[in-house]
Design brief:
By secondary structure, this protein is of the alpha/beta class. The chain is built from 15 helices and twelve strands. The chain starts with a helix and ends with a strand.
């Protein structure tokens, strides 16, 4: 196995990024060629794939999100089992790309978040604190692939006073900032998160936070009402009518008034939230349309509350493949150019996995990779290294 000193000394490194998001669609794996590090870094995506979860595995992961069904024994077993699956995804990626594992320098794995608590609760008589848990044992990934693996990125930021997320803004700053115009990069995964990049910004000027719901509520409603995993291309929403009274009620949620940095997850905007929506007994397509509008308006509302001028919005994540959602978002942002990441040369699906490849690369270089304006944490080198 390559020594860290040898890897650090290279001008260019080949790094795999692994990611499984809040929607639990599957494991994203990106093979990225990285030249340098930090603000002057250059990234090139060599290969990307998503390995979908088997239905039984996906259901078992969702069960981990419910404290009543996820004992410590279950989470312990899941941690190692998911480590095996992440390792297989990395090996499959290398096989498809025709790359020998010995030529890969690092793996950066985000793992699967099973609990994220930005506002902590007391434990054992101790004061409340922020906590987070990602599983997918990195020791297993390193052992199965023979590649140094960097993982567990969120926890150091929390130890440094942050909320542990979002972390992708580091890639946004390094790769997507512009001297000509102010941009927002908007990920719409299970949860929506935004990075504000003022024109010609420094790292200290970045603002990033979770805007609120992304696809998670839409997906949960689509599964419950139409027996489909998601609203493909927003067709169901396009055929429904937005219920403005219900939408106004949803937009009164107190999360939207909280000032950044802030993060959220399925604990607020998950299956339980979708179940409460179904109690309104609207026509199914109208519920999907209203949930889609909820995502669009909560995003636009966050910009108006917390950000300065915006000229361009660059959308990634699963929401970038939902034309109805993109149209609703554009309608809420007159005069703003709304586009997908592909318009600026980045694969929307691969971006988050690429971000964790970059975080692993810069961890080895000893560079701080959290953004104080995103997480609230003091600058820190993120990640645990498994030889």
């Amino acid at each position: 196995m390559k020594a860290l000193e040898t890897i650090r000394a290279k001008r260019e490194r080949l790094v795999i990024g692994l990611m499984s998001g809040t929607s639990v669609d599957g494991m994203d794996a990106a093979l990225v060629r990285i030249e340098g590090g930090g603000a002057g870094v250059r990234l090139r995506l060599e290969h990307f794939l998503t390995v979908p979860y088997e239905p039984a595995v996906r259901a078992a992961i969702f069960a981990l999100f419910r404290p009543e069904s996820a004992g410590v024994d279950v989470i312990c077993r899941a941690n190692f089992a998911l480590g095996e699956l992440f390792a297989r995804a990395a090996l499959k990626l290398m096989h498809e790309a025709g790359i020998d594992p010995q030529s890969v320098d690092l793996i950066g794995s985000h793992g699967q978040t099973v609990w994220h608590e930005p506002v902590g609760l007391p434990w054992g008589g101790l004061a409340p604190g922020v906590s987070t848990l990602q599983i997918g044992e990195p020791a297993v990934i390193a052992e199965r692939t023979g590649i140094i693996t960097v993982a567990d990125f969120r926890v150091r930021d929390i130890a440094a006073g942050g909320q542990g997320a979002p972390l992708v803004p580091y890639l946004d700053y390094c790769v997507l900032r512009s001297d000509q115009c102010s941009r927002v990069t908007q990920n719409i995964g299970g949860i929506g998160n935004a990075t504000y990049l003022p024109a010609g910004c420094s790292a200290a000027e970045i603002i990033a936070f979770d805007t609120g719901p992304g696809n998670m509520i839409i997906d949960a409603l689509t599964a419950a009402l139409f027996d489909r995993p998601y609203d493909a291309e927003g067709r169901i929403a396009a055929g429904g009518t937005v219920n403005e009274a219900l939408l106004a009620e949803l937009l009164a949620h107190p999360y939207f008034e909280l000032s950044p940095p802030k993060t959220t997850g399925r604990e607020l905007f998950g299956v339980q939230f979708a179940r409460e929506l179904m109690s309104h007994h609207l026509p199914p397509a109208d519920l999907i349309a209203t949930a889609t509008a909820f995502t669009a308006r909560s995003i636009a509302g966050a910009y108006r509350r917390f950000l300065g001028p915006v000229a361009e919005v660059i959308v990634g994540g699963g929401g970038a493949r939902n034309p109805t959602l993109l149209r609703m978002l554009a309608d809420e942002l007159p005069g703003v150019r709304v586009m997908t990441h592909e318009a600026v040369g980045i694969n929307s699906d691969a971006k988050e996995a690429m971000a964790f490849a970059l975080l692993a690369n810069d961890c080895i270089l000893g560079l701080p990779t959290n953004m104080p304006g995103a997480t609230g944490g003091r600058p820190a080198v993120l990640g645990k290294v498994m030889y």
